[in-house]
Each structure stands twice: as structure tokens, then as C-alpha cells.
Design a protein that fits this description.
Blueprint lengths: L1 E11 L3 H12 L4 E4 L17 E3 L4 H5 L6 H12 L7 H15 L2 H7 L28 E3 L3 H19 L2 E4 L2 E9 L2 E10 L14 E14 L8 H7 L12 E2 L8 H8 L4 E2 L4 E9 L9 E5 L5 E4 L15 H9 L5 E7 H7 L1 E2 L6 H4 L3 H9 L5 H9 L3 E4 L2 H10 L8 H13 L9 H9 L3 H7 L14 E13 L2 E2 L6 E3 L5 E7 L21 H19 L1
Parallel strand pairs: 1-2, 1-8, 2-5, 8-20, 9-17
Antiparallel strand pairs: 3-4, 6-7, 7-8, 10-18, 11-12, 11-17, 12-15, 13-14, 14-17, 16-17, 19-20
Helix pairs in contact: 1-6, 1-18, 3-4
Keywords: Flavoprotein, Oxidoreductase
GO molecular function: steroid dehydrogenase activity, acting on the CH-CH group of donors
Organism: Microbacterium endophyticum
Length: 553
């Protein structure tokens, strides 16, 4: 039996961009249907699991921290980081420019009007370390939402649930789209299968067993189903040659439902997919000792002090320090012939500098618990979630002397590649450079520069010290893996989020938002991201898509 529905605006995918799109379409007076292949506890999608970082330009938080930012500086950083160089970058360039205006303009006030607030210390992600015209953020711009990812999702989730209670919006869980329907070249909705009900908790992998068919007719259809990070087959298929060979072993930084299935469906309906070879995966992944989805990895958000070694024990080159250049580090490590690398650090560094990405790994910020925040961020000892990995994580080695540490590293899978003499030489040489306030070691110079920023000195950068100093111990080594995360390409769209076909004309009735659209235009980040721009891209493209679809009714 085929279950049939009709609506004004159909939103496929209830992650952040889908929730925003639905909210904006509702504001235009449209009737909205919101569907997703997952169970209702997953409302909010991948964004719910995020750290909640948002990119702003010249914000009050930046100014209070003594940061001098401007739209011109941000545009300089974005252009250098994106490195647009293709004919397909025409719309992504326009989207990038529009997004920067949004980030420097109404974005913060718009979110504040919805009750979203921000942690006062601005983080400095993707620091670059090249010249002024190289990639990276010249200044700190990473604003953590008070409440992390759930705090960003909350006002939009509340809006759609309120509209659902009023009968203006329908939410259909466990509805998996298998095709977009069309009439005379106009997309008129979607069809697919209703999956078996699931009582699984948020993020847990669910079945794909069908029990019914469905059809939904709509005047406007918005695809907001995310990227491919949960689908390793697609990640490897689209892996670009410029990044070397894909890793044999990958951790998964997103739930299994981030499977990229809607890309081919949208393409069949006439949409053009561009920049699929641009992707954003991290090299600081660790195996989750308490996994929620298959292959669940957690990314370390490191401060800049840890010594980064490849699998053989050789230190990574300038400026591939922790937190400086994600894609450059990935490219370098893929050329090493090994799937893993190492952080070597002291207890003093881990207490000050280690933060783990994810709402569930930051209970103080997620729970808006000031007392816990002061204790975990400013008090003695590692934060609770970090300590849990020290106690239970299979990638962590903790020892009281260097020989024992190296033995522990070599005992882990792949550890036989490690050269003990090289590890010792790298650590001893690095520590000698600490003796003076000046140095030829670029990483140590950057540490001292970072501490000139109040935010780093307060909670993110340890005072420079010898890693081998027993008073700073014990010694810690962390085995790092590549962890999948974001797709930077996607469905090409114009500045109204309308999907475009191979000939550049609009596909009538079809819109795209969020990661499915490369966060706008089919790839507004270009090759690299400045961080804090993924949730922001979902907010911006979802808002544009919802308003445009609502206006078209």
C-alpha cells in the first residue's frame, strides 16, 4: 500500500539546515512536511552532536577579548583558505561572499533574538601558520554556543514542534526517500519507503527494513540530508588524488545515517553535483571508548603545544602543528605510508589544552553548568571526558619515563613502525629550545605568540615547558587516526538555494541546503574551511532555502 501526502513545502532531512528551512517556510505561511529516515529522537541530526562552534566577524565577544577583526580581514582569510580555482566555483564564490556578509552582519543578532548565546572566550581554530595571504584564521573567530550543538538546534526544533502541535507542520519519521517525483520537468515531491519503527536512542544505527511505500506531493522540495561522512565507500570513491591514497582504516565522526544517499537521487532528478572531491576530514581522531555508532571516533580539539610525530617518530614539518592546518596535515600524513600519527605531550599540556569535539564530550558547556565549567576548564586535573579517555581509551599511553612511553607506543597496533631513537631525539631537541625566551623552533615561537592572546593564555595554551620535565608529567602519547567529517561539495545552487542543472538552469521546484549543497552553491568553503563555518553554513543556507521556497508557493 502506498501512503500519500500533500504539502506546500517538503523538507527532506531534519538536521539543522532542514529545521531552519522548515521554520522559515512556515513563517511565510506555507504548510510544511518534514521527513527523515531516522527515528524521532534524532531530530536535529548531526548538528546536535556538534561542539556548537560558530564563525562571527568583529563580534562583541571578539572585541571584549581584544581581537581586532573586520570583514576585509575575514574575506582575505576566506579567499586564501578556499583557493577557488575552477569554473564550478562561480556560485560557491558568490555564496562565500554572501555568507561572510551574514557572519559580519545579522547572523549573531538573529541567533540572539532566538535565545542563543555564546561562551565569552573566542577560540582560535585553523591558525594557518603561513603568511598573511596563506590559509587560516588571522584572528580567533570560533564562538562556542552556550549549550553546544543542542543549544543551536533548540530554537528551531521548538519552532517546528510548536507548528506541529498547531497543525501547520507534519513530521514524518522513518521515511526514506528513494526518488524525487517530477511532472513536465518540475520536481513535485518525493517517494520512498516507510521503514520499520525504531526505539533506538539518538545516534544509534537503525535498520533499513521497509514496511510501506509513500508519496508526498509538494510545490517546493528542499534537500537537506547532509553529506557522506558515514559512508566510507563513498568517501574512498571521492577521495582526491591530491590527498594521496585514502586510509585503509577510518574512524567515523558522524552517525551512520550521514550516508550521502540523496546525492544520486537529486542528480537523477536533474540537479548538478559539483566539487565532490573536496572534503574535510580530521587527523586527530581517537577511537571512542564508549561508542554510539559503528566505528565512532572523537576528534581532539588540541591546543598548540603537543609534539606531533608521524608513525615513524619524525616530527611534522612547519607549520603542521596541532590546530593549524587540517588539510595540509592530512595531505602530509597520507604521503607517509601510514594511517596513524602521534601526539606526545605532558600531563600539564593535556590538562590545559585538550578539548574533545562533540556535545556529549562537553557536559559543562552543553548543560550550561557554570560550576562544572570552572572546575573542568580552570581547575586542576584533566576535564572529566578527557580523563575518561586517559583511563579507558585504547589510543592513550601514559607512562612516567620516556623509555616506558615508547615501549607502550610500540605495543599498539602499527607501533612497530616507530623509531625509538628518533622519538627521543625529537623530544630532547625540542626541550632544549625552551631554555631561552627566543628560539628557532617555530612551534615554540607560536606558543609564545598564542599566549599573547588572553583567551589562549586563560584556557587553551599551557605555559611553555619541557615535555620531559618530571614535574610536568606523567608523559602521554596519543595514537591519532583519520576521522571522517564533512563534505565540502554538493548540489549546485543559486543564491536562492534553487538547484541548478548541468546547463546552469534552475531545476524547477527543487532546492538544497546545508551540507547537501556544500553548505551553499555546491561548495562555499572551496578546498579548506576556517572552522565554525559548518553550522553557520547550515543556518545560512537553510534560511535562504526556506524563505525562497516559501515565497514560491
Amino acid at each position: 500500500m502506498t501512503i500519500k501526502h500533500n504539502t506546500d513545502v517538503l523538507v527532506i532531512g531534519w538536521g539543522l539546515s532542514g529545521l531552519v528551512a522548515a521554520t522559515e517556510a512556515l513563517a511565510s505561511g506555507a504548510a510544511v512536511t518534514l521527513i527523515d529516515q531516522e527515528s524521532r529522537p534524532n531530530l536535529g541530526g548531526q548538528a546536535w552532536w556538534s561542539f556548537g562552534g560558530l564563525f562571527f566577524v568583529d563580534s562583541p565577544e571578539q572585541r571584549r577579548m581584544g581581537i581586532h577583526d573586520s570583514i576585509d580581514l575575514a574575506r582575505q582569510d576566506w579567499d586564501a583558505t578556499a583557493a577557488f580555482d575552477r569554473e564550478e566555483d562561480a556560485w560557491p564564490r558568490r555564496w562565500a561572499s554572501a555568507y561572510l556578509d551574514f557572519a559580519a552582519g545579522e547572523k549573531r543578532a538573529w541567533l540572539r533574538s532566538k535565545g542563543v548565546s555564546f561562551f565569552p572566550v573566542v577560540g582560535w581554530a585553523e591558525r594557518g601558520g603561513y603568511t598573511a595571504m596563506g590559509p587560516g584564521n588571522s584572528v580567533p573567530r570560533f564562538h562556542v554556543t552556550w549549550g553546544t550543538g543542542p543549544g543551536v538546534v533548540a530554537p528551531f526544533q521548538a519552532a517546528v514542534e510548536s507548528a506541529e502541535a498547531e497543525g501547520r507542520l507534519t513530521i514524518l519519521a522513518r521515511h526514506r526517500v528513494t526518488s524525487l517525483t517530477a511532472s513536465n520537468g518540475v520536481v513535485t515531491g518525493a517517494s520512498g519507503v516507510v521503514l520499520t519503527p525504531s526505539e533506538s536512542e539518538r545516534g544509534v544505527e537503525t535498520s533499513r527494513d521497509p514496511i510501506d511505500d509513500f508519496e508526498i506531493g509538494a510545490q517546493a522540495t528542499i534537500v537537506s540530508t547532509g553529506g557522506i561522512g558515514g559512508n566510507h565507500e563513498l568517501v574512498r570513491k571521492q577521495w582526491p588524488a591530491r590527498l594521496g591514497t585514502p586510509p585503509v582504516s577510518l574512524l567515523t565522526g558522524v552517525p551512520a545515517y550521514v550516508d550521502g544517499s540523496m546525492y544520486a537521487i537529486a542528480e537523477t532528478a536533474g540537479a548538478r553535483l559539483i566539487n565532490g572531491d573536496r572534503m574535510w576530514h580530521y587527523v586527530e581522531g581517537i577511537k571512542n571508548w564508549n561508542p554510539i555508532w559503528p566505528g565512532h571516533g572523537i576528534r581532539i580539539l588540541p591546543g598548540p603545544s603537543s609534539l606531533w610525530l608521524d608513525a615513524t617518530g619524525k616530527r611534522l614539518p612547519v607549520p603542521l602543528f596541532p590546530g593549524f592546518d587540517t588539510l595540509g596535515t592530512l595531505e602530509h600524513l597520507r604521503a607517509s605510508g601510514h594511517d596513524h600519527s602521534w601526539f606526545v605531550l605532558s600531563q600539564r599540556i593535556i590538562e590545559k589544552e585538550f578539548t574533545l569535539s562533540g556535545s556529549e564530550q562537553n557536559p559543562d558547556l552543553t548543560g550550561k553548568d557554570v560550576r562544572l565549567l570552572l572546575r573542568s576548564r580552570l581547575g586542576p586535573g584533566a576535564a572529566g571526558p578527557v580523563q575518561a579517555f586517559l583511563d579507558h581509551g585504547e589510543d592513550f599511553v601514559v607512562r612516567h619515563n620516556l623509555d616506558a612511553l615508547i615501549d607502550g607506543m610500540r605495543a599498539l597496533p602499527g607501533g612497530e613502525a616507530l623509531d625509538p631513537q628518533r622519538v627521543r631525539a625529537e623530544l630532547v631537541a625540542r626541550d632544549r629550545e625552551i631554555e631561552n625566551d627566543f628560539t628557532k623552533d617555530a612551534q615554540i615561537a607560536m606558543l609564545r605568540s598564542a599566549r599573547a592572546y588572553r583567551g589562549d593564555k586563560l584556557i587553551r595554551t599551557a605555559s611553555p615547558h619541557r615535555i620531559l620535565d618530571p614535574a610536568a608529567g606523567p608523559l602521554i602519547a596519543v595514537k591519532l587516526h583519520v576521522i571522517t567529517r564533512k563534505s565540502l561539495g554538493g548540489i549546485e545552487t543559486d543564491l536562492s538555494s534553487r538547484a541548478l542543472g548541468p546547463d546552469g538552469t534552475v531545476v524547477p521546484g527543487l532546492y538544497a541546503a546545508g551540507e547537501a549543497s556544500g553548505f551553499g552553491g555546491g561548495g562555499l568553503h572551496g578546498y579548506r574551511a576556517l572552522e565554525g563555518t559548518f553550522l553557520g553554513g547550515c543556518l545560512f543556507s537553510g534560511r535562504v532555502a526556506g524563505r525562497a521556497a516559501g515565497a514560491a508557493i
